[in-house]
Every structure is written in structure tokens, then in C-alpha cells.
Design goal:
heterotetramer, A alpha/beta, B alpha/beta, C alpha/beta, D alpha+beta, B: alpha/beta, Rossmann fold, four-stranded parallel β-sheet, 5 helices, globular, C: alpha/beta, five-stranded mixed β-sheet, 11 helices
């Protein structure tokens, strides 16, 4: 005979506004096996938990049902409380009467009845619960950081400085990411390269960090503490150990007219190249798509000139597998391809560029040496129009969110321009100016007041070229939406920040969830911002949503701390909600017949063959056994097992069966 | 006579649809109260027999929902489930049991609105279909089949 | 036929096998299983077109296993049963001595699973046209008509489990029906108990049924049970490209998947 | 009572059935259902099939149905409230057109269910049932009633027995008081039989194939002959078909069907042929293999029954043999036992 305790939470008004909590507590008290039931303003609060603990001790409860919010929110909280009161934490279940009831139904009897139903279901379930003990698994104290932008760099350094091994994987030939492309950074206008490159070098030289550039993650197996990560090291066609990085090859390469990705196509590079002067590692790779040798089968100039004899044309991609205890996703973001806006004529008119291209123009190490010149004729533009929200906050274009960083960098661009072209006039078309952040509003003010940037509130409808000028047509909504037309020399589009291409595939490879925009999804929007739903995989930076540098760095450090905490123990305790094969007395031993159909159904190769032998060592029977280190508790085997020989703890056949019984027979 | 309020059980996976339904709540989107959720780790865990039990015990409709293909938290549970349902629906249909009473859906953790739609549409559909007499009349509570009684 | 007796007598006398499962004349013109353990018993062996029973069901019977290595006269359904049982780890390669009677009356002995697979590739493993028609007829009915058809049939069921006992794929030591914590399937032979038992059985045989029809033949109440599992054969082949009992190392249709499996019913 | 003999016209049978119907009797008789003939309720004579040798199932289900509710209960917070089922709550029943072997089968059931503690659920139904059997004019090779003390015209267990003595006429034997009461319902349709009318010449010829006494002795003495039973039972696949169609098999199982609120307790047919029949919770099974279960079936009918009550627990209808998927022919097996 069970002694269940039912604790109904008002959650302030969140539940009690539409559900009669007293009634739920009262009626659940009438259920068979319920020894104690009560309702309380905030069950999760200290007094709430104390009330619960006292009830457990006082009434010798052997099971607890907390009727409150989603178990995805507070299950750990209440299970911990039970444990502290001496009750096995897995004897605690939660009835979700907030997200699944009070918040989605109007005040009324039907809503209260539903709450009562949900409680009854969980009461019946908890009667079938079994005391379980956490599973201990070893932790590999190595982290894989995917992405070598500022977020990845920050995470890697923080983890490495905690004394743990880090493997950084970057798909480009150099780490640095988008930040290395920036000229100056808001709101301080300090040089991006100057603050970033020391960190890049630190990564390269850190004893705890192994760096794989020009590499991609192609497989993730295993589970928290015990991941196996497959990395494809794309062939660089050089022997990094021998190459001295003298750069002679890059000067001699006959292919000189390849648009430079780092310069966003504003400059050129050779086929064997180092993406930018401060690249880390500062060693070239051969771009096989453009290399004469790979196209025509002859050339090999680089090989001839290389003093170190480091060129390896026959080098092949290599796939290595590393073991890791945790993974940090820091794959960053991308900007919307401006050809997204035919009306703005990007691609058609050379002088319509995007923000990143402007960064390169403004960068001292950029194609123009830091002078703002038109891509078309190299002239210094006297009038520049900056178009904010190019794509962002535009349901029509399919992007409803605010890219967040554009307002700030547009203001920065205007300033940079003004500082370089004193007689020039910057215009900014904007919807709203969002400058939340330390010193941000002040920064925008400076752009407007000190640098006389013309801010025009309104959208740009079209841009077209007329005798060497770009005609920008828009409307000024603050002046009664009267039409505005500006003859500009150059237009800069603050294109929306979007998820990196390949993000979806990577998410699927790593088995983490992602949102409608293919940004990786956090486990909880407020309380678990750097965790994913997959234990042991964390998020850093703009792969989660558009973020500026300080935010990315903060998130990266946050993720690093999560990893460090995970690595702080040699063993990690896992929830025992896994599959088990039943065992019985001889001569049956188990109702498993050893058909092993469960073997192929298991996503984690967790099914093993167990031979049952008699005293003479002869095999009587071969049955399935679950490896509790590998089993993740999906239960697919359970649904497949004809004899019901395999069952899953926490969602056992007894439990789900009785839940259905309880739900439908009221 | 008052309107028929169908009993509908939803078997959902913990990672996508359960979280999606949480989001529906967090977003305060309203939906019919007829549907009650039973939480499973994964659609792969959902045994066809639990669906039969639901019908046997008087469910008028059933919702089975989990992660979209490729999004399964366990990578393939929903793929196995999908095969199971393809076969099971075939069988039910052949046995003369209305498959319309089971609504399958993929609802991700981000699709709070979709969950509300799935629920409301299912409730609407089941109301049109009416009570699940076919299955109920054979259920435990019904008079036990005295010999020959069923012929009368 | 004499050839069969000769071979089996030899196999038994030189102890290659401990028992040979074949056919003998039964009562009222029936043909039934014979378990020859010595030369005398082997004399009763027959081999003609009345030998239609699928004898593979006997392969896993404990008392028969105890008789030593098993030889069997396997018809096509039996050969497929052996393949399916092998794929479910119930029979090891070369543990059996398998004979089959060809259409011309000659006998073939299989040295291993592979040779059985080859043999089956060229054999007709389809359900009969009569069975096809019956299924088509049922499919042409309305849902309600089908429901009535089956409730009339299931009403007759007395839960004697002859279908289960006769099925070579129902080898579980403990059938789901006998699982009582929880009691998934009502034990009683009332309408619900019968309906759920037969649905459960059909589901558990989906993708495993090798259409030997033993279940229907065994049913003392003449319920056409085989149709339940037969009608799943085609969809499973169509959707998943799998046919049961053709390969010893086959992966079960429902324990694997294809990311591109298509359906039209999931929102 | 000493029996009366009368004559009834075939043509009056519809009237006869009509009388019982109008008297509120539940009339059960052989009717065609699909491919088989079964004993089921009938509204009119037209539905009845009299030319079938035997119905697929025996007549036992009339008093011992395959599923029978014996208790209802409610589950409350504290304890359970029981609602017993009243055994009396069963209709007056006429069982019409069954074979002598079926009627005879009730003798075994009476002794089993009548034994202390008396089983009211069976007895009350039986008590309220009047049995009109039809003597057999044909038989098939599975029949062996004469070898177990019965016969095509055996009247044991029947209240009335009809024997076709000509295409138009039936010889009516009124055998019991219950039979007399029933006959009163259609007395006007009966005419006196000319003295010396002998039904035996009209009966089917069923040869005696073994001496049942031998079977009883040999079965009992060969209990430990494992090889013998194994040899007999290798073909057996362990289903319950034989037991469920058998007119004398009386084993049952009690099952509760309940949800969290209420439940019913059901009595269901069971079979000693099932491996689960004797399985202990511990996993131990005293009848571990099928040969032991087959032996049990034979022993129960031909050793234990004669020991406990008088007479064997088999009426020689041969249903089990006809129903057996594996062609376990009991007549053949018994003959071999007797010949041991």
C-alpha cells in the first residue's frame, strides 16, 4: 500500500488564476494510496521545499507528486528536495499543470478537472516507480571546440587555462573568424586585429590546445563525458611541420586573380595562400579549385621555389577520431547574401556593398590600406548611404528577428567614414535605433552629434544608378513619410546576421536541436543559455543567435565554465533512466528469447549478447544485455520487444500502462 | 443534450513535442482541454499496444507526436516509430478500425503554435467522428460475452 | 520417395542426425509430421504433394532438440522459416540437415544457409491468388464492413492459441499474451481480448510472417487469421523493400529505417 | 423414472421449438455460422441444422462458457467492495439437437462441478437446462463412443432423446422428470409408439476399437514410461484446441480485469496442454515438457477421473482429434495404450 504525497503549487497566480488549486489538492487527497496532499503558493521556494521535506518525513511518504510547472523546469529541484528528505529522488514525479494546463486553458471547471486528471495520472505512475540509483561513468577530460572565431578562442583558452585539454577545429585555413575581418570595434573604436591577434597566437602556442585548421567535424558518437568525434582534416597540400611560413610560394604563384574571401572579394589572392597577414597558423594552403597544377596537371612553381620543400601535391584528406568529454559549438554566423535584395542592386552596382566589405575598406590592413574608396573607380565617396535592417525585422523576407549588431556597427561605419573623409556626408536609413548596452547609446549619439551622420527614419525602397551616382529612394517617416532621394556615391547594406551555412547538418551530426532559423537551440532560454538539450554539448557565440563581441565572449566563457565543471570530477553521474533486460530464476533466466531485433534498433550500440551457462560452462541460453554506459534511454528497443523482456526505467511498461488506465478511467 | 467532449490522449516525446507544448504554455496560446499528455522519452518508445490500451479504456482519439525527422534527440527513434506507424495504420485499417482517430505529428520544441493547432484540429476531427463506439463496445466495462449472447 | 527413405535411413544409421522431421500418412486422409529416430520409423516417410505442412515450427521444440542433430524435409515455407529464424539468432548455420523435394520429385540437400538463400531466389514465395483475392475483397469494403467482418470472425475465437503454437515465428518462451505485469492483452476470450490478441499477433509478425498459413490451417474455428499478416507483406515490401525469410542475415524491417521513408499521415 | 416412448412428426418440430420460445426458454441448437456448425441461440426452427454429425465446439459451453463473470468489484481508497454475481441469474434453456456424446459429456462435468465445494455457476445453469439429444444415424472414423461406454443411441445425460426412425418420424424417449415436464409442452404433438419399436436398427454402426479397462490399467501403470509418452506426443504443438472443444474438459482459470476504479473477475477455459498451466512464480514448472502435459491429459481422463468419480472422462466424440492442428488422434493413441 503506497503512501503518496501530493503537493499542488499555485505558482503565484500562474496556476491558481485558472485552476482551483485547493480543489485539486483536496480531490487528489481522496485517491487510493495518497497519504497527504496540500497546496502552496510557491512549491519551488524554500518554504515550499521545506514543507515538502517535512511532509515526507512526518507522513513517511514513499512517493511524491508535485503538481506545478513543467518537469523540464523543476524536476531536478524537487527530486533533490526528496533526496534531502531521505526519499529516493526517482520516487518523485511532476504533474505539469502550468504549461500544459493553467496557461493554455481559461479559468473554469474543465481546466481544474484537467489538472486533477494530470495529478491522478502521475499518482498512479509514481506507485509503479522504483528507487533508482544514479549511474557513474568516466569522463574524458578533453573538450572539442568547433569554430575558431572569438567565441571559440575564448572558450578554448578558458578551458585550457583550467588545465584541461582542448581540441579546436576550424574549417578555414586560419582561426580568427569574422572578428579578424573587422577594422575597429564599437563602442571603443579600438582596432579589432590588435585585440584579437594576441589571443589567436595564445591559442596556437597553448600547451593544452591542439589546433586543427582547414578541418571539419564529420561525426559525433557517444555521450556526455565519452564522445567520439570524427574530424576531417582537409588536405592543405603542404607539410606543416616542414613549412617555415616564409611565404615565398605565395609571391611566386601564377594564379593571382582569385577573389579573396577574407577581403569579401574586394581584393585578390593566389592559389597557394595565407588568408591574411596575421593568420594563425601562418602557413599557406593550396586552393585546389584554382591551382594550375590541379586544373592543368602542370605548374608546381611553388614546389620549385619552396626552400623547405614542404609542398605535397599528393596529400589527401585525413579523417581522425578523437575522444572528448564535452563539445563546444562556436561555429559563428554569416551575413545574409545581399543578392537577397534585387531592389538594392547588390552585385549589379559595384558600389553597393555589405557591412563586412566596408569593414575591409576601413581596415588599415585591407585592400585599400584603410582608405574608403569606391570599388568601381577607386574614387573617395562624398556621400554614403548606410541601410540598416537590410533583411532583418522583415517578415516579408522571412527574417522576423532583429540582428542586433547592425545598429551599432552602422553607427560605427558612419563614424569611421567621417573620420577618414572629413567632408563626406554619411546618411543612415533606419527603422529604430537599438543601442542597449554599456556606452552604446552614447556611441550612437556621438555618430549623430559629433560626426553629423544624417539619420533618416524609414526604409529604402529602391536604388538605381544614374550617371555614376547611386540614386537611393526612400521615405522619411518622421517627416510624414515624405519621399527622400539621395544621390550617393556608395551604399552600405547592414545585412542581417544569419546562421552559418552547414549549421543544420552539423546540428544533426551532433544530435542537438536548432530553431526555425537554423541557429542552435539552448536548453532553456533564460536558465540554460549555453547548454543544449544534448548533455555535454554547449553553445558559445553567434551560432546561437546574432551576438556582438562582448556577448559572444561572455557566452564563450560561460560555456567554458560548464565544461570545466563537468571536468572537475573523474566520474560523472548519469540519470539511471535506461533500458534493462529482465532476469528470472532458472530455468527461465529471462523472458528474452535472444532474437536480438533490439540490437539493430539501438542507436547507441548498447545491446550486448549475454551467454547464460550451466555449471559445466555449457551455454543454456543467449540473451540480450544493456550496456548502461552506452544506453541513453530512448526506449526504442522496449517498444520493439515482443516478449516485453526489455524495459526502461522511469518510463517502464508498468508506468505508462497505469498512466493510460488512470487517465481514461476517472 | 450537451456537446460530445471527446477524451483524447497524447503520447509525446520528451525532447521535442513535450517541450513544444511547454512553449505553447509559455506563449499563453490557448487550446482545447480535451487532450492530456503522457510523456515518453522518445516516439521510438511508444508501443503500438499502448495505443490499443488507450482505445480499450475509452479514448476517442489519440495524438502521437515527436521530433521532426533528423531532429530526434536519440538520432533515430522517430524514424523507427515512423516505420512502426506505417505498418500499424495498415493493420488497423485492414481490421476495420478508424485510423482517423490517431493523429501523428512532428512538433519541435520551437513549434508551440503548431502544437496548439494539432490539438485543436484533432479535437475538431474527433468531435466530427463522434464517440469511439466501435472499440468501446468491446471493452472491459461492456457486458462480458455470455455464450452466444453476442449473436442476439 | 524411396530415395528419401534410403537417404534418411543412412543418415540415421551413421548418426549424422538424431532425428529426421518428415511426413507420414495421418488419420482421415491427412498428412502429418513424422519424427524418425530409427530405420523402422523412417520406413513410414512419405514425400508427395500432400506434404504441405510447415515443419519448421518443430525445430525449436525442446524435446525434439534433445534428440540430437535435426534433419528436416523442408518445403518452401519451411526453408523461409529457417532463414527467418536464422536472422533472429534462433538457428545456427549448418546446425541442421536440410532436404527439400524439388518439383520433379528429386531431393536437394543444402550444405549451408547460403545455398538455401540461392534456392529461394528462384522460388515462388508469393501468397496464392485466392488469398490475394480475399484480401482485395476485404480492402474493397468500407471500414465498418471490415470491422463487422472481423468481429464476426474474432467472435468465434476461443483463445486455444493453436495459431500461435502452429506458427514457426511464434517461438517466444513467453508470449506477450502471457505477460501479466502489466496484463497487456486481456486473457479472456471475449471480443476485446480476441481483437487485441489478434492485432498484437499480426503486429509482431509484421515483416516476419513467411506466409505458410499454418495459423489459419491450425484454427479449429476456421478464422482466416493468415490474412491479417498477409496483407502487411506487400506494404512492407513496397515501403521498406523487405521480404521475410529470404536471407539468414537479413535485418528486420521494423528494427531498421531509411531517413527517406515516406508516409502521408504525419502532420 | 422409467422411460416413456412416443412418436413425433418431423413436421411438428417447428411447433415444438415455437412452444419453448414462447414459454420464454432460451433455445440453443446447432446452427450454421460461416464454415462451421455451432450451438447458438435460435429464434426459429428454420435456423437449426440437424444433419451435421457434430458441432465444432461441444455443448459444455451452455453451462460452462468460455468466459463467465463470477464477481464485480469497486476499488475504493480504503479496500475493495465486492458485488457477487447471482448464479441463479440465468434463463430456462432448451438445448436441442445435440448428440448423445455431448449430452453424456455433462455427466463428467456434473461430477466435477458437483463435487465439494459445489460450483453454483455451473450447476444452476445446468439445472435450468433441458437437453433434447438426437441419436446418431451416421458416424465418422474419429468417433469411438462405443469404446468408452457410450453409443450412438446412448441416453445418459439426455432429458429427451429423438431418434429418426423414418424420413417423417422421430422416436421420442422421455428419460427424466425434467424431460417429462418439457414433453408436457408438446404432449399434443406426440403419439404412442407401437410396442417393440426398436431404435437400434436406425443407429450408426460404431465399432469398438479398444477395451477401455485396458486403457485405464495401462495408462495408470505406464505413468513413468517417459519414452512412451514422448513417443506419443512429439507431434503435439501444445495448443489448447483439444481441451477447448472437449465436452468433458473442465479446467478453468480465474482472471481479474480491472482498471484503477473497478473490475470484474472472470472464469475462463484453461488447458493442461499449455506450458503456463503449471508454471510456478519461481519459474519452476512441474510439467516442463509437452510429453508430460500430454500424459496429464490422458491420465486425467482415464486414470484420475475413474479413480475420483465413476467412469472415464471421455465420451469418444473425437472432437479433439478433428480439431488438432498436428493430427494427434486420440482414438489411435488410446488404442496403442490399450495394446501396450
Amino acid at each position: 500500500m503506497s503512501r503518496i504525497g501530493v503537493f499542488v503549487c499555485h505558482c503565484g497566480e500562474n496556476i491558481s488564476a485558472t485552476v482551483d488549486c485547493e480543489k485539486v489538492a483536496r480531490t487528489s487527497g481522496e485517491l487510493k494510496g495518497v497519504e497527504f496532499s496540500t497546496d502552496f503558493k510557491y512549491m519551488c521556494s524554500d518554504p515550499g521545499q521545506t514543507l515538502m521535506k517535512n511532509a515526507i518525513r512526518e507522513h513517511k511518504l514513499d512517493g511524491v507528486v508535485v503538481a506545478s510547472c513543467s518537469p523540464r523546469m523543476h524536476e531536478p529541484t524537487f527530486r533533490k528536495a526528496c533526496a534531502e528528505a531521505g526519499l529516493n529522488p526517482y520516487m518523485c514525479e511532476m504533474a505539469n499543470i502550468r504549461e500544459h494546463c493553467s496557461w493554455v486553458h481559461p479559468k473554469g471547471d474543465q481546466t481544474t478537472e484537467k489538472a486533477e486528471d494530470l495529478v491522478r495520472v502521475l499518482v498512479e505512475k509514481v506507485k509503479k516507480n522504483k528507487s533508482l540509483n544514479a549511474i557513474k561513468v568516466p569522463v574524458t577530460k578533453t573538450a572539442v571546440v568547433i569554430g575558431g572565431g572569438i567565441a571559440g578562442i575564448q572558450s578554448a583558452l578558458d578551458i585550457a587555462n583550467c588545465g584541461h585539454k582542448v581540441i579546436m577545429v576550424e574549417k578555414q585555413p586560419s582561426i580568427g573568424g569574422h572578428m579578424s575581418q573587422l577594422s575597429e570595434t564599437f563602442p571603443t573604436l579600438d582596432c579589432s586585429q590588435c585585440i584579437l591577434t594576441p589571443r589567436m597566437v595564445e591559442v596556437a602556442q597553448h600547451p593544452n590546445i591542439t589546433l586543427y585548421t582547414y578541418a571539419e567535424v564529420v561525426g559525433v558518437d557517444g555521450y556526455i563525458g565519452n564522445f567520439k568525434v570524427k574530424i576531417r582534416k582537409k588536405s592543405k597540400s603542404i607539410d606543416e611541420n616542414i613549412c617555415t611560413g616564409c611565404g615565398l610560394c605565395t609571391t611566386k604563384c601564377p594564379q593571382k586573380k582569385i577573389p579573396n574571401e577574407f577581403e569579401r572579394g574586394l581584393g585578390n589572392r593566389t592559389a597557394i595562400y595565407v588568408p591574411f597577414p596575421q593568420a594563425v597558423p601562418n602557413k599557406p594552403v593550396i586552393d585546389r579549385e584554382h591551382c594550375t597544377y590541379y586544373i592543368k596537371g602542370k605548374c608546381k612553381v611553388c614546389e620549385i621555389v619552396c626552400p623547405a620543400k614542404a609542398i605535397r601535391f599528393d596529400q589527401e584528406d585525413e579523417v581522425i577520431e578523437v575522444e572528448a568529454g564535452a563539445i563546444v559549438m562556436a561555429t559563428g554566423f554569416d551575413v545574409l547574401k545581399p543578392d537577397f535584395f534585387p531592389e538594392y542592386g547588390y552585385g549589379k552596382y559595384k558600389d553597393v556593398i555589405d557591412g563586412l566589405q566596408f569593414e575591409r575598406l576601413a581596415s588599415a590592413s585591407g585592400p585599400t590600406g584603410g582608405e574608403i574608396r569606391r570599388p568601381s573607380d577607386g574614387q573617395v565617396p562624398k556621400k554614403i548611404v548606410f541601410v540598416a535592417c537590410a533583411g532583418s525585422r522583415d517578415p516579408a523576407k522571412g527574417i522576423e528577428y532583429c540582428s542586433k549588431i547592425c545598429c551599432m556597427y552602422t553607427a560605427k561605419h558612419a563614424m569611421l567614414y567621417k573620420h577618414k573623409v572629413h567632408d563626406g556626408i554619411p546618411y543612415v536609413f533606419y527603422m529604430d535605433i537599438r543601442a542597449g548596452g554599456k556606452m552604446y547609446e552614447e556611441f550612437v549619439r556621438r555618430a549623430i552629434v559629433e560626426d553629423e551622420t544624417q539619420y533618416i527614419r524609414g526604409r529604402v525602397s529602391t536604388i538605381y544608378e544614374k550617371n555614376g551616382k547611386l540614386i537611393v529612394k526612400g521615405a522619411d517617416t518622421l517627416m510624414g513619410a515624405q519621399p527622400v532621394e539621395i544621390e550617393a556615391d556608395m551604399v552600405v547594406l547592414a545585412t542581417a546576421g544569419v546562421s552559418n551555412q552547414g549549421a543544420e547538418e552539423l546540428a544533426q551530426t551532433a544530435h542537438i536541436s536548432y530553431d526555425a532559423y537554423k541557429f542552435f537551440a539552448e536548453a532553456h532560454p533564460k536558465l540554460k543559455p549555453v547548454e543544449t538539450n544534448t548533455a555535454g554539448i554547449f553553445l558559445a557565440g553567434a551560432c546561437q543567435a546574432p551576438k556582438d563581441i562582448p556577448e559572444s565572449v561572455a557566452a564563450a566563457s560561460g560555456a567554458a565554465v560548464k565544461v570545466a565543471a563537468l571536468f572537475s570530477n573523474d566520474e560523472l553521474t548519469r540519470e539511471p533512466l535506461i533500458a534493462v533486460v529482465n532476469r528470472q530464476a532458472p530455468p527461465v533466466f529471462s523472458s528474452c528469447v535472444g532474437c536480438f531485433l533490439c540490437e539493430s534498433v539501438c542507436p547507441y550500440q548498447a545491446i550486448e549478447h549475454e551467454e547464460i551457462k550451466n555449471r559445466n560452462g555449457e551455454i543454456i541460453k543467449t540473451i540480450a544485455r544493456v550496456n548502461d554506459g552506452l544506453c541513453q534511454g530512448c526506449g526504442t528497443c522496449v517498444a520493439l520487444c515482443r516478449t516485453k523482456a526489455i524495459d526502461i526505467q522511469g518510463y517502464s511498461n508498468q508506468q505508462v500502462y497505469t498512466e493510460v488506465m488512470a487517465l481514461l478511467n476517472d | 443534450m450537451q456537446e460530445f467532449e471527446p477524451k483524447i490522449v497524447a503520447f509525446v516525446c520528451n525532447w521535442c513535442t513535450y517541450a513544444g507544448a511547454d512553449l505553447t504554455g509559455t506563449s499563453r496560446i490557448k487550446y482545447a482541454a480535451n487532450v492530456k499528455i503522457i510523456r515518453f522519452p522518445c516516439t521510438g518508445r511508444i508501443d503500438f499496444m499502448i495505443l490499443m490500451k488507450a482505445f480499450e479504456n475509452g479514448a476517442d482519439g489519440i495524438i502521437v507526436s515527436g521530433c521532426h525527422p533528423n531532429d530526434c534527440h536519440y538520432s533515430s527513434g522517430n524514424f523507427h516509430a515512423r516505420r512502426r506507424w506505417i505498418v500499424f495504420r495498415n493493420l488497423l485499417n485492414f481490421a476495420g478500425i478508424e485510423t482517423e482517430r490517431i493523429q501523428f505529428s512532428w512538433v519541435s520544441a520551437a513549434e508551440g503554435l503548431k502544437w496548439a493547432d494539432v490539438v485543436n484540429n484533432t479535437v475538431k476531427k474527433i468531435k466530427e467522428l463522434g464517440p469511439n463506439e466501435n472499440y468501446k463496445k468491446a471493452s472491459v466495462s461492456a457486458e462480458v460475452n455470455e455464450e452466444g449472447a453476442s449473436h442476439e | 520417395m524411396n530415395e528419401l527413405i534410403k537417404i534418411v535411413t543412412q543418415l540415421l544409421s551413421d548418426k549424422t542426425i538424431g532425428v529426421f522431421i518428415g511426413y507420414e500418412k495421418g488419420s482421415a486422409g491427412r498428412t502429418r509430421a513424422l519424427f524418425a529416430r530409427n530405420a523402422d520409423q523412417a520406413q513410414k516417410l512419405i514425400c508427395d504433394d500432400t506434404c504441405t505442412q510447415n515443419l519448421a515450427g518443430y525445430l525449436l521444440k525442446p524435446e525434439i532438440k534433445k534428440l540430437g542433430r535435426i534433419g528436416i524435409l523442408a518445403n518452401i515455407p519451411a526453408l523461409r522459416s529457417i532463414m527467418q529464424l536464422a536472422s533472429e539468432h534462433q538457428i545456427k548455420d549448418q546446425s541442421l540437415l536440410v532436404l527439400t523435394a524439388n518439383s520433379d520429385g528429386s531431393l536437394t540437400e543444402f550444405c549451408d544457409f547460403h545455398s538455401i538463400e540461392k534456392y529461394l531466389e528462384t522460388s515462388d514465395v508469393n501468397i496464392t491468388s485466392g488469398e490475394k483475392e480475399m484480401i482485395a475483397r476485404l480492402e474493397s469494403m468500407t471500414t465498418t464492413e471490415r470491422r463487422e467482418f472481423w468481429s464476426r470472425e474474432f467472435e468465434k475465437c476461443i483463445k486455444c492459441y493453436a495459431c500461435r503454437a502452429a506458427c514457426p515465428m511464434c517461438y517466444c518462451h513467453r508470449c506477450t499474451t502471457d505477460v501479466n505485469q502489466p496484463q497487456w492483452i486481456p486473457v479472456a476470450s471475449h471480443e476485446m481480448g480476441n481483437l487485441e490478441y489478434h492485432l498484437m499477433r499480426a503486429m509482431h509478425l509484421a515483416g516476419r510472417c513467411i506466409n505458410c498459413g499454418e495459423c489459419a490451417k491450425a484454427c479449429p474455428m476456421d478464422i482466416p487469421l493468415n490474412l491479417l499478416t498477409y496483407q502487411l507483406i506487400e506494404p512492407i515490401r513496397e515501403n521498406f523493400g523487405k521480404t521475410a525469410g529470404m536471407k539468414a542475415d537479413a535485418v528486420y524491417a521494423l528494427s531498421t529505417f531509411n531517413p527517406d521513408d515516406t508516409e502521408n499521415f504525419i502532420l | 423414472m422409467d422411460k416413456e416412448i412416443k412418436i413425433l412428426k418431423y413436421g411438428d418440430l417447428p411447433k415444438l421449438i415455437g412452444r419453448f420460445n414462447s414459454r420464454g426458454f432460451k433455445v440453443l441448437a446447432p446452427v450454421r455460422s460461416g464454415t462451421i456448425v455451432e450451438i447458438n441461440p435460435v429464434g426459429s426452427f428454420e435456423e437449426i441444422v440437424l444433419d451435421a454429425l457434430l458441432t465444432r465446439q461441444s455443448a459444455k459451453k451452455v453451462a460452462f462458457p468460455k468466459v463467465e463473470k463470477v464477481l464485480e468489484f469497486d476499488i475504493l481508497k480504503k479496500g475493495v467492495v465486492q458485488h457477487p454475481v447471482d448464479p441463479e441469474a440465468c434463463p430456462e434453456t432448451l438445448l436441442f439437437g445435440v448428440r448423445p456424446c455431448d449430452a453424456c459429456g455433462f455427466k463428467s462435468l456434473d461430477s466435477i462441478f458437483g463435487d465439494t465445494p459445489a460450483d453454483q455457476f455451473y450447476l444452476k445453469k445446468k439445472e435450468k437446462t433441458t437437453i433434447i439429444s438426437f441419436a446418431c444415424t451416421t458416424a465418422d472414423e474419429y468417433c469411438f463412443c462405443t469404446s468408452v461406454g457410450g453409443g450412438p443411441g446412448n441416453t445418459d445425460g439426455s432429458d429427451l432423446q429423438f431418434t429418426p426412425i423414418s424420413p417423417e418420424e422421430l422416436l421420442v424417449e422421455i428419460l427424466t422428470d425434467k424431460g417429462k415436464e418439457a414433453a408436457a409442452l408438446f404432449g399434443d404433438l406426440l403419439t404412442d409408439a407401437s410396442t417393440g419399436t426398436d431404435k437400434s436398427q436406425h443407429l450408426a454402426d460404431v465399432k469398438v476399437v479398444f477395451d477401455v479397462k485396458n486403457v485405464v490399467d495401462k495408462a495408470t501403470s505406464s505413468f513413468n514410461d517417459t519414452e512412451f509418452w514422448l513417443d506419443q506426443s512429439l507431434r503435439c504443438i501444445g495448443c489448447g484446441a483439444c481441451a477447448f472443444v472437449c465436452p468433458t474438459c473442465a479446467c478453468f482459470d480465474l482472471q481479474d480485469e480491472q482498471n484503477t476504479k473497478k473490475g470484474v473477475r472472470l472464469r475462463l477455459w484453461d488447458s493442461c496442454g499449455f506450458s503456463l498451466f503449471t508454471l510456478h512464480t519461481s519459474g519452476h514448472n512441474p510439467r516442463e515438457v509437452q510429453s508430460q502435459r500430454w500424459r496429464q491429459r490422458i491420465m486425467h481422463k482415464f486414470s484420475y477421473m475413474p479413480e475420483q468419480f465413476n467412469g472415464v472422462g471421455c465420451v469418444g466424440c473425437g472432437r479433439c482429434s478433428r480439431a488438432c492442428p498436428a493430427d494427434m488422434n486420440i482414438k489411435e493413441h488410446l488404442t496403442s495404450i490399450a495394446a501396450q
